Structures are given as C-alpha cells and as structure tokens.
C-alpha cells in the first residue's frame, strides 16, 4: 500500500510517503523502535486489514459546500477530531523533538498528548502549544513520584490525564531486542528521576533497556482502585488508555474515569490481541454515550478517521505518522503530515455527504 | 489475471490484453490518469475481487440455440445491455477521441454516454452515433451554464441526462498528483467555457489541474432539490450516477429521477467506499422495479455483465476497457473491445441457459 | 502446492509430480489444451481452494485393519470409487492414447468413460478394458448420427451413456486461442464423420478449431425433452454430466436420467461458475438417494475422493492427472497415477476410521 | 513470520529463530523428517493461520504483579502448563538426544512425554528427569510386547501413558519418501525389539523405512475395546492422543481414558484434517470438565499457550521447537527454547490481566 516518493514528485503526497523518508533518514535502531510491534507483528498487519475491510456507504446530494470539523471531547473544543498520540522520546527523531511537534500542532490546530517519556518538559511544551494539551502517565511503584508528576502536569496547564493501562510490563518488541535498543547518554528525560533515566542508556544482550526500566519503575499491581486513587488526587479528567473490552470500559467509567481510549499500544504490547477497529463497536455500545471515547492504532488515511467516528469514537489519536513527519522535516514535516490528514478527512466528509462531525453516523459503515 | 499478448498471438483475446497495449502506447501521465484510482486504490482491487467472488449457478438443457440480447432501459431499446460509460478527454487516448468511440459503438450497436469533459462536441458525436446517446453532466455553480448545456444536449439529440452526484469535489488521485497531471494547451473542451478550460492546462505542484478546476466550477452545494430543479428545466429523463445506498436510490426516484446508476466513479472518488457489486442487491431490492437501474465499475468479462443483471441491474456501463481499445487502435480498437465483450456475454448467456436477458434471474447468483 | 520431482527422487510421489513431467514432455499447444481453463481460469484455482478448505474430522479407534473400497454405481460394481473421466484426443498425449489408458485401468481395476472425441474406437477400447466402460456423447444436430453412435457404443459393450450438457457451445479457452489450437491431419477420430473431423485440423486466427467444430456439429438447442428422446432410443442408463444446480439434477432424474455427474467441465466452459465441491451438497440433498451421483473437477488427492463421498457423491471422475500420467509414461504412467491415488484413498480411509466406502459419512466433513 | 537470526544478534529471540538454526545445522533428511507434514502440508499452514486468527481480548487493571503458572493435570502438579510432546529419535538431532531434553526440562520445570521411538531408554530418562514423565506408546500387533512396555514404563517411574490413536498406518510424508528416509545402523531403539529396529535402517525407493516399520509392527485393528484392555493391564492413567472430534473424546472417557490430547500428529498423518485449534472448543464443551484435556500442534508463542487454555485445554504439548533447540545447542538449546516460551507465556498472562492459569477463561478469546 505504501506509495514511494518518486524523483519527479519531491513532495510527499500521503502519510505512507513520510514513513519511506523516515526509514531512510533514521538510524535503523531508532526507525525499528518507532515502527516495530510486539513479537510476530501480526497485529500491525491485521490492524491495517481491519481498517481497509470497512467500506463506507457514502451519501450523495447533501450540500457539502460548507463543512465543519469542530467537535468536543471532554468538553474541550477540538478544531478537528484528531489529536497527537503520546509517543516517547521524540528527540530521537529530530533534535527539536516534542517542541517541533507542538509548533506543527498549532499550525493545524491539533491537540496533543504528551508522553511521560517525553524528551521535552511539559512546561516547555505547554508554553508553546495553543491547543489542548493532555499528559500521559503510568502509575509508578513510587506513588509519590506519580502524584508529583500529576500535580506538575496540572500546573503546567494540561487539561486531562491519559493513564496507560496496557503496560504492566513492556511488550516483547523483538526488533528492539535484536538491536539491543538503548538511548544516548545525553537524552533528556525531564519527567523521570535521574537515576531511572540512566537505566535507559544501558545496552543489554537479551532485552531492550526500556523493558528493564519499565519492570523496575512502573507498577504491575495497579487495579481499578488505583484509578480511583488517581482521580482522588487531581481535578483533571482522566482517560484510560489501552482498553479493548466493553466490560473494562464500563469499569473505567465506574471507577471514575472521564473516558476511554481504545488502544492496544500500536501493536507494541500483546501481539495476539484484538484490533482496536474490531473492539470499538462493542465498547461504544457499552458506554452508550457516557464519557469520552477515543481510538488509536493504524490510522493512516482521512477515511480511517471518518470510519472511527462512524464506529462510535469521538476522536482519534495519530501516532507513528507524526514521528515520520518529525523525522523527515521537523516542524514542517509534522505540519505536512497533519495537513495531508486533515485535507483527506475533509475530502472524506465531503464525499460521504457529511457537513459536520455529527453527521458521521453508524449507517455509513453498517 | 491479466493475460499478456504474446508474440505468437498478435490479436488481443480479451479486454485485459488491451490494457497491456494501452500501457505501452500511452504516455505515463495519460495512462495513469485513466488507470488510477483514489488514494490507496483499495477499491480497484476489492471491486475485481467482488466480481470474481460471485459464482454463477448456470442452468443446462434450456435450448439456447437462439439468443437475444435485446433489452430496454428508460423505454429505449438497446441491442445488448452494455453502454459506454461517460469518460473524459478521449482525445488524450487517440486523435479521433469520442468520434472514434461513436463509430465503433455503431458497429456493435452499443449506446454511449458522453461526458461533459468530452473533447468532441455533443453535436459532432450525435451526428455520427446511430445508437442511444445520453449526456453526462455536473451541476455547475453557474446554473445558467448548466441549463444551457442541458438544452444544448437535448437539441443535439441526447435522449437522457446522467447527473453525476459523487463528485462534489474531485477525489484524491495520487498518481495524478505525482505526475502533476495537466492537459495540452490545444485540447478542445467544447462543453466548457474557454476560461474554465484553460485552467486544466496549468501544472500544479501539489494537486492535479483537474481537481482545481472541479473545485472552482462545480457546485458542492447540490442536494436533492437541485435534482428537482434539473428535472424542471428539461423533459429528458435523468439518471443519477454515483449512488451506493438504497436510501439514496429511493430519494433519487422520489426527487424525480428516472433511474439510478450504481457507481463509485470507477474507484476514483472515495477509495474506502463500498463496491458497486456489493451495493447493487440492496439498491435493486429497494427500487423494486421502479426506474432504470444500471451499474458500472470493474466490468471486464461477459460473465460480469451477466452477474450484474442477475443482481438486479438492467444494463452496465463499460468504462476503462473502451479507453484501452481507443488507445490501442482507435475505431478498430474500440470495436474489438466491444466485440469481445459482446461475444463473451453471448457465450455466458448460452452457457448459463439464458435465451434472453429476461432469463438472467437472481437464482443464477444466489 | 506442486511438489517438483527432484533429481534424487526419480519416481514421482504424487499426482502433482506427473503434471510437472507432462509440462516438460508435451508440446506447449498440447499441454495448454489439457491444462487450461476458460477465460481467466478463476475456476481452476477456486476449485482447488474449495477442496483444500474442507477439513476432515477423522475418527479414531475403529479397527481399520481391513478396508474395502468396493462400491456400486448404477448397479455396476466398482473396485474403488474412482473412474477415469471422459477426455478427448488422448493420442495427443501418447501414441497409444486411450488404449494405454485402458490397459492401465485394468491394472488398477478402474472403470473408464470414453469420450466421443476419443482417438481410439470404442470397439478397440472395449476389447481391452475389463472394467466398466461408459460412453460419453453430445447430442449432435444430426440426430441420426447421435442415434447411430449410441447403438454403436451399446454394441461395443458400453454399460452406460454420459450425456454432456454443459457445452451448447465451447467455452472460451484463451490458451487455445492464443496457440491457434488445431490437430494434426492424421489424428484419427473414429466416432466423428470424416468431414467433421477434418475441420479440427484448420488453424484459425481468432479461435480454436475445436470451438468452430462444436458450433457447427453439436446441438445448442437441446433441452430436457431431448434427454427423454435419448433415453427412448436406448436401454443403457444415462448419466447427465455438467450439472451444478439442485433443480437441474432433479429435472434430469424426472426426465429419465439414471443419475447426475456434478461437473463444470474441469473449468473449461463457464469460468465464473460455482465449484463442483460447492454445488455437490445441495445436489446430494435434492436427489435424496435417487439415482447415481458422481463429481469431477480438481481431484488430486485421495483425501479429495474421501471428501467427495462424504459430501454425497458415490464416486468421482479423475481427469487431467490421467493425461499427465499418459504423457509421462503411457500405460505405466497412468498406472502409477492410479496407484498413487488409490493408495492415498486407502490411507485416507484408514486414517479417517473408515473400513468401507459406506462409512464415509457426512459427519466427517461437517 | 520467521524472524531470521541476524549477525548483530547472535542470541535467538524467539522459537522461529531456532528453526532457522536447525535447518542450517541438520542434514536435510533429518530436518525434513522433523519439519515435514503429510502430503501437501496444507495442515502445517492452516494450523498457524488458525492460531493467529484468534484474537485475545485482554483485560487491564487486574494487579498482575504476582503471577502463578502452576496447574494440575491428572492430579499431577505442573509448574507451568506446557509439557514436551513425544517425539521420536531425538539422537538424530543431537548426540545426547532425549537425555539433553530431560536435563533442559528440569531447568525449566517442564514435564516430558517420552516416545516409544525414543533413542534413549525410559529408565535413563527417568533417572534424570525430576518432572512428570509420561510414556507414549502404540498398541502393537504383539500385545505381549505392548504389555511388557507398559510395565517397563510403569516401573521406570512414568506417571501416565499416552496412547497415540491417529496412526493405524503412517501418514504419507512426501519429504521422507523423496529423501528415502532411513536411520543410521547404530541408532539405538531401546523400546523396540532388535529385529524391528533393524527395519528402520533399510533404504526404500518408494516409501520411508518408518512407514514400512509401522505397517508391520503396529496394530491397525485397535478399537475402543483395546483401550479398555490397555487400562485393564495398568494402574497408570491413560491419555488418548490424536482425537479431533467431540464424540471420540467422549468415547475415550467412556472407555476408561483419564483424558484426551487433541492432536493431529503435528500435521504428519492426515493432511486434510481439521486443525487442533478448530477442534478444541467442541471437545472441551463435550468433555465438560471430565478428564484431562491437552492440545498440541503449531504452538510457537506464549500467546498460543494462553489461547489454548482459554479455549479449554489444561495444558499444551510443545513439539518441533524442542527439536530445533536440541539441534541448535543440546541441553542449552532446549533450555533456551523453554525459557523463551515460558517468558512469553508469563508476559502474555500479565498483559491479559491473568494472575493464575485459572483466570485464563474463555471470554479472553470469545
């Protein structure tokens, strides 16, 4: 499906093109870290196949001369239903890292979720970003550290927390194991304590340094009561990310979450798991409109965004393509990626007979 | 599936062979314009797969010594249930363009739908064609221009209008973007105002000139009331082309249309859409015999024509293969393409136990 | 799936190996004639896929130390439920043609259906064959010729007639068209009148000589009453070959046939038709034990024979592999092919817990 | 799916890597014997496809900080629900053969099923193995020999018998036929009588020596009453291996078996049979908790183990990967294979929200 950039057309024309460029400009260890999935990477291909298998039953003759992409998630206004997914260590892709991403997000009016493993501080990102900023976190064994991070994110201006729950341990990403994945010694981790960050530099024979770090720092014992605890220490709304079952989505709401992000961590945790596209309808049905519902995983086309909304999501998170744009051209690369996707989404709405996000209804994919 | 023409067999034996020839003789920019689809071109392959997946439950011992292909669409007699689809700019394929197509259509007694983007005037085509001629159009922002075109088509002898409704904006055809698709300065567009036609010559970096033209001239605001308006200014029957949903088909009939053409614009508009083969049965069921029902998209074999009719269509429109024939050999090329398809359809009827089009019933594909 | 014969193993180990040898030793025009199907040859691959998709739910602990393959079809005893399908012009494959096939059939106690287009006379074959001999025919325009052929077959010792009904016209076999398929002038056709046989020698530009012959000699007007007529002029039981629908199977019985052969002519007539594997269950169900039921098409493994019987057939006809054996080694080649298949069938019975053909029941494939 | 070991990563990271190594270090005849399946090897690929098609609906927030893999099968404690499948002639893979396997099993606390065709005596293996040891056998024509073997296994300390019932005759393994598979003259077969073992050394033109041996020694006449007989001569529990149908599983229990192993002999007996993954649910349902239920076939990932248990199995048998580890590195190779699989299973439990084997329930795969 990838359409390689051709000599006669120096400008990338779709998100696939940016991955081709990134694969060329990034060191293999870095490209593999971003591109890879767990184990056999079955989920990477099944996810794209699942998106492609959904056919849009578009409507015609609906006066689509004026279209609005505006929507609300958690009561926050988004100018279009795409936010940037939390992705670690963006300075590996480009020297300006998360700041470049934030600048590009401004230009396309795109919200952003900052990773705990960001290589730029939440304060610096917040100072730049004029769109909704959310903070992604794990519950660490050291609850005090977690609480401090929550407060810091709040004070920095984040408007929601995203609690990742699919990572009690790190998935087995075999590319990283083969590459003995590790970080440069000078890579900043402003949200990690120094001692912890140092661990990521180690080069290990049979695992990635990240897996070792996760096992030592994060808390595999978390359960729904910890979500209640987290909610008790903050007034920020919490989204639970990594849910693929209706019962877990309902439990998240009942434990105080403001919403759910259907995600399998981009295929990087449990390779044999259900696709997010496959899990979305039952979760949307079980939530029945209570709480925010987002989805990520494999989104590469504007029509994917439209499909996600038709299947019940309020918005999608865009992951790897942002990294490909960042690798290819920093601010400008991310901007192009977001622009292409927004243009595609806009065209998909027009060609499906939708004037607003609210008209992207389930009959379009039934 | 393509069977390349072999040195020892200079005569093409099927429609695939003509595409192979066309790909060789046409400039890449032109071949890509004709052959390409939108975005990932998923629909091009899913459409062929959908045709191939339908199995004919043929009948035997039905005395098929005499077979009739005659049928009626809109009360107009067709000698066989295939018409030539509206296709733009046929002079790009061959110097004689639409006139060559019309001459070939005469020889095989095939009706023809002329595109608004024809490079030959409707008057000139009408002067040649001895078979039903229909005129395809869009509703332009300038309703006066649209009205004038309708009247001109009527006066020229067209017997129906085909209103394309799947193109409020042009689909993203990435081959054209990469090729910076544009037209030669001397290409005639007798149905466009000169100023508009000139726009098609421009070479743009990030889009095709056609997309720019469409956005500036055609009206993305059209809705079902515009269909009623169009019907109010003409006594010609109107077919609505680009429908893939039962509710839209019914709405078309209720808005005054004489029928529906199930089409997704040959996969050139919304890549992720449903196949026409997939959409046809529910539309045939909803129309329940009211109005004409045609289908296009991916027809390459006589058995596809038979399947389409068994699924509820009254006739099919043949698109790209006509262009391949035109590119390969002008009048004679188109004639061969039509002859091959008619022979295949005739044989398919004989081998399915059908003596007439009326015997091509749904039990053949159930 | 083909397992090429390897230098270290000069003996073919399965039926696929024989096709590899045949493709090497036969002239391309002849190999293509035998191997090819109609049009896109979709049916050739869908048929193998259909066989492979059926999974055997084998039984264990059934005392399979003694197994019997004996069965009855039309009241005639077969030592195993496989007969040789009617296949034209076997002298193209090997100088001894149908006589070699008959000698090999004797050695494996396999019955044989002789084609009207045989290059050996029914009398000569009958003189050799010690197993059931059936005669395959078409109804010719010249009913007198048909009647004479029926009487001749009867007198020669044939014990059933196989009326092929899927060929009112010859399917479009594009390999043959490309190859300008024709026969050598000295090829004997003892069941054709000389004038007719001569037509097969002509080399034509856009078709195969066989297609021209069929159109001129066979009767496309035949219907169920002609079956009644055929039955009226002979006391031989008649099997109707080429049926893929339950209603046609029932009609065959009601028109006097003694049974039905589910066949699509090895994918050589209507390419887009249903597979015989797919059609078999509904036909078996509709016939409900009345009349003989056989199937052909794509049988390459002993497990295919077992599956066919479990799906309701009484026996299968084996086609192309016999020709591959004949091409590879005359009598001995056919013998090896039959021996391999019988050994495979025997092993399939043992491993499925079946002591006799009657124990090959539908629960094995449900 | 195979991930080749790369120069920069000398340590294999998954079970696939070990097959790549084994294919390089083993003689072709030996590798083919281990790797091959019957006939077209359809079952080898359909089995992997069947595992991959099952998607895990993982749970989150379940406090998986402490996980237990302990389980019981036949009342015997297993430290994790994987045992080593009975596999013949392990000295072909490595000079230390079954003893190496046993040593590795100790290190990972894995039980082991010893094959009758072991090249190490049950006494020697038992002297080493500190985990459950079961003995696999066939019922031989010579019931006295069978009885003696049962008593010998019991006295050697085996705690269960595994009766293989899918092999009344040996499957047609075409790689072995092509390779004229045979054994070295000095290969020990401590559980076979000398005369019988000698037969395995013969090199035959059209079969493997093993097929000849099986046909001469084992009893194709066995039926359910022979299971009763076997149970009558021993107090050891008997598991019936090779069942793929619910009715056969129930019959096994009713004939005195202590449980069932769903198996198709690794695709080496009846190529066209149902996959074990496909057969497992109906068998689990029919057994309804009575007796032990194990499964083998194609297990390559920790998630496969989890899926098997979610589908109703109490444990799985691991086959070929053990041989690849043995070939690659003797004790250490097998140890690494088991370690990798146990680590993967542990991670799969954690990422699925399971703290113990009892929490691996059917809703995870529904």
Which features characterize this protein?
homotetramer; 366 residues; alpha/beta; eight-stranded parallel β-barrel; two-stranded antiparallel sheet; 14 helices; 10 strands; 42% helix; disordered N terminus
Structure commentary:
The structure is a homotetramer of 366-residue chains. The first copy, chain A, has 366 residues and is α/β, with parallel strands linked by helices. Chain A contains 14 helices and 10 strands. The first copy, chain A, has helices at 15-25, 28-35, 42-53, 97-108, 122-128, 143-155, 174-178, 194-199, 209-217, 224-232, 246-254, 276-287, 302-310, 320-352, and strands spanning 71-73, 76-78, 82-84, 111-114, 133-137, 160-164, 238-243, 259-262, 292-296, 315-318. An 8-stranded parallel beta barrel of chain A has the order 3-4-5-6-7-8-9-10, surrounded by 8 helices. A two-stranded antiparallel ribbon of chain A has the order 1-2. In chain A, strand 3 (82-84), helix 4 (97-108) and strand 4 form a beta-alpha-beta unit. Chain A is globular. Chain A starts with 14 loop residues before the first helix and ends in a 14-residue tail after the last helix. Mean pLDDT of chain A is 94; it is low at 1-9. At the B-C interface, helix 13 and helix 14 of B face helix 7, helix 10, strand 7 and helix 11 of C.
